[in-house]
Amino acid sequence: QDFNHIIAERQGAIALITFNRPKVLNALCTALIAELETALALIEADDSLSVIVVTGNEKAFAAGADITEMANSLFTDVFAADIGGPRWQRLANFRKPAIAAVAGYALGGGCEIALMCDIILAADNAKFGQPEITIGTIPGWGGSQRLTRAIGKYKAMDLILTGRQINAEEAERAGMVSRIVPLADLVPEALKLAEKIASLSAPIAMLAREAVDSALETTLSEGLKAERRLFHASFATQDQKEGMAAFLEKRPPAFQNK
Ligand code: HXC
């Protein structure tokens, strides 16, 4: 399918989505969000695709929601459209593993989109921030919630109350970047990481990410129970039988994604 604001490509079992509004540093306009939503639904329904990589360009992952679109909105406009609501957070409810490959600016909604992914790979030039306060608003796509869960209250407050940007190293130290790679290697490394995940069992990966997400959604005792039930569920898959048999037979596993 052809899109105007994103590029969606297939590389084996990997779907690569590239934000494509370079002139405005990939500002996330509503049309782009709608295209992302459509692409994610197609990828989720396609059994031949098991991992997604989301990226931008060398200068910007995304510099936030499109300010030109929002500037004159009234409360009733943003409320009625539920800006920032489920349609904007589709990536957070995506069921397959998602990797954000971030180079350049990941600000505001751009940072929030990265935070909706399971793994954040940052190029050494990446800059993260929630600058909303500097334009008279606050994060609206989960920034105050996911960022706080990712890096803790005091670091999140530091970013959200000042709007300052942090580089890849500070973001990695804070715990929101999984790994830093040289800019030139960003997309190849993200694809390599995605291929590694795709070479394992897709249903087990889905169980695993659901278990990790439970840590953010619920209490410790509920989360531990959810983990246990998901762990038990892995025994209903052929891939668990294959994985353990292969280990005992000292051979590589041949996962069937079942
Ligand atoms: C619309 C944007 C934009 C944005 C950049 N541009 N960010 N347009 N929305 N978020 C446009 C600029 O207007 C400019 O267009 C072009 O992209 C290049 O940007 P420059 O500012 O000239 O580049 P530079 O000097 O390198 O500065 C880069 C920057 C700066 C530091 C990233 O662009 C910036 O501060 N952008 C805004 C960041 C921000 O506040 N994001 C949060 C948005 S609110 P022209 O036409 O002049 O070339 C948000 C809320 C989400 O995300 C929640 C909503 C529910």
Automatic annotation (TrEMBL):
One of the GO BP terms on file = fatty acid beta-oxidation
- Isomerase as a keyword of this entry, yes or no, is yes
Q: Which reaction does it catalyse?
A: a 4-saturated-(3S)-3-hydroxyacyl-CoA = a (3E)-enoyl-CoA + H2O; a (3S)-3-hydroxyacyl-CoA = a (2E)-enoyl-CoA + H2O
Give the main EC class. lyase
Q: Which domain of life is it from?
A: Bacteria
What are the EC numbers?
A: 4.2.1.17
Q: Name one GO molecular function term.
A: enoyl-CoA hydratase activity
Q: Which UniProt keywords apply?
A: Fatty acid metabolism, Isomerase, Lipid metabolism, Lyase
Q: Which SUPFAM superfamilies match?
A: ClpP/crotonase
Q: Which family does it belong to?
A: Belongs to the enoyl-CoA hydratase/isomerase family.
What's this protein's function? Answer: Could possibly oxidize fatty acids using specific components.
Official protein name in the record: enoyl-CoA hydratase
Q: Which organism is it from?
A: Beijerinckia indica subsp. indica (strain ATCC 9039 / DSM 1715 / NCIMB 8712)
